[in-house]
Amino acid sequence: MWDWIKIAVFGVVALFAAIAANWARDLAYQVHALIVMAVAAGLFIWTVRSTGERKVAAGPRLDEYNDGVVRAGAIATTFWGLAGFLVGVIVALQLAFPQLNLDVLQGYGNFGRLRPLHTSAVIFAFGGNALIMSTFYIVQRTCAARLWGGNLGWFVFWGYNLFIVLAATGYLLGATQSKEYAEPEWYVDLWLTVVWVAFLVVTLGTIIKRKEPHIYVANWFLLSFIITVAMLHVVNNISIPVSIWGSKSVQVFSGVQDAMVQWWYGHNAVGFFLTAGFLGMMYYFVPKQAGRPVYSYKLSIIHFWALIFLYIWAGPHHLHYTALPDWASTLGMVFSIILWMPSWGGMINGLMTLSGAWDKIRTDPIMRMMVISLGFYGMSTFEGPMMSIRAVNSLSHYTDWTIGHVHSGALGWNGMITFAALYFLVPRLWNRERLHSLSAVSWHFWLATIGIVLYAASMWVTGIMEGLMWREVDANGFLVNSFADTVSAKFPMYVVRALGGLMYLTGAIIMAWNLWMTAFGKVQVTAVATPAE
Predict the structure, then answer these.
(1) What is the DSSP string of 109-168?
(2) Are residues 250 and 242 in contact, defined by beta-carbon separation less than 8 angstroms?
(3) Which of 66, 65, 34, 183 is nearest to 121 (CA)?
(4) Which of 204, 299, 337, 386 lies 20 to 30 Å from 400 when distance is taken between CA atoms?
(5) Cα 155 to chain centroid, rounded
(6) Residue 473 phi/psi, 5° resolution?
């Protein structure tokens, strides 16, 4: 019965998508309709062919973990990471050498199209798959329960990656709302909402049916990130389609209200997607790799409640010196400064978890990655509140200093903890005794670390220089430098930035090779059976 319902749904979706492709008002919508039609038609055919077949193989035992979807998540995380880092290097080179915006690329592969592709590929494709992968792994182990919902976990994985494909192709074809971190148009947003609700249902259902009475703190962070991102996504993307057959939509909010909602969303996308979610990863993988309990469980709970209460108020600090009332931006600034304390409490808690195991920093390159990620988390969560102060913001805002800040957090904190999680998970998911090469992990660590330092330091230097050049006036009070002067002065730092990005990409390529050889290499060492992680 269930198979026939699926056949009907896939058939209707494929038919509607075909009609949408025929009546499409713009190329992006047409391409997306064709992608949806192809996916739905493929699922229709596959379901028809498998319907009525005798199910010979027994289903999984209820006490077994669903690690198939976690393995798929590890592969997707690695793939999208390579794609996002590669596009980042390309756009960095385009900024340093504008002639690389080739005529043949105009309209599809120029900087304006590739920049949001890079941003979303790293944050939502690489980071999002890392979070889904880690959530599904952590919630099963800490609850001693199989993922709730049967194949609903697979729906979340494939549905989310369909969203990534639709968003990425939309950017290249010019379908965008022009909202930072929220570029996909209305129908892609609707699909993501469906997938995200399913993600929440799977995670919450697993926690509810847990066999372990205590809800471990990592699950608190993971649940808060899922619920809050859902709220942010829905409110910030309220829009009215111009036509059901086109990608264009009109935002319900406008003017300063739109700006306020956008940066309430934007900063909390950083606060919950890139901070709370990855802290959930940290609170599981760091103790596991160190072989030590969390340094202070009480501090982790304080960290959680302080973080989720304070972060949600910090967004207006993005709008100093704008039409937003001063009281609102000051409120955001004050909460940002207060946020420094719980952020560093979490960093200290993670680092002090190594008490009694500090020697692992010398002997274990995976542990080294976790420690450096916590270091960058601490630096970023100090720099962010400092940059929110109005006087500092007057110099830093609209300059490359902000770019350096974002990338020291994204590459140093999110990237490094994700790399460490992948190195932790892959041998366990594919039942291998160890990674293929620990020396390759060390090479990855140093390439990534030096690459981040080059990237961030060059952007700090050029950002502060840029801000000071914009401010410089002569004896008569006239501006000394034109915008072109600042662009010319930044060239050496842009080259260093591209070099740092290239080193980071090289490290990720080494990681991909190492993980591939661990999982699928010819020499595969099967692990001795051990209790579930």
Answers:
(1) TSHHHHHHHHHHIIIIIIIHHHHHHHHHHHHHHHHTSPPTTTTHHHHHHHHHHHHHHHHH
(2) yes
(3) 183
(4) 337
(5) 19
(6) -130, 155
Identity of the residue numbered 333: M
Distance CA 272, CA 277 (A): 6
DSSP per-residue codes, 471-504 = H-B-TTS-B---HHHHHHHTHHHHHHHHHHHHHH
Contact between 136 and 70 under an 8 Å Cβ cutoff? The reply is yes
The contacts of residue 471 (CB under 8 Å, 6+ apart) are 395
| CB proximity list for 184: less than 8 A, separation 6 or greater | 163, 166, 167, 170, 175, 176, 177, 192
Burial-class residue 528 by CB neighbours within 10 Å (0-12, 13-18, 19+).
exposed
367-409 pLDDT, tens digit each: 999 999 999 999 999 999 999 999 999 999 999 999 999 999 9
| Three-state secondary structure string covering 164-221 | HHHHHHHHHCCCCCCCCCCCCCHHHHHHHHHHHHHHHHHHHHHHHCCCCCCCCHHHHH
User: Which residue has tokens 């590669």?
Assistant: 86
| pTM of this structure | 0.94
Q: How far is CA 113 from CA 28, 91, 94, 294, 386, in A?
A: 13, 10, 12, 43, 32
What does the block give as tokens for 310?
A: 């304070």
* pLDDT score of 1 more than 90: no
Instruction: Please count the residues of the chain.
Output: 533
Write the pLDDT tens digit of every residue in 436-466. 999 999 999 999 999 999 999 999 999 999 9
Q: What is the DSSP letter of 52?
A: T
Indicate the DSSP class of residue 26: S
Please report, for residues 40, 280, 333, the alpha-carbon distance to residue 411 in angstroms, rounded to integers and kept in the order given.
36, 18, 25
Distance separating the N- and C-terminal Cα atoms of the chain: 37
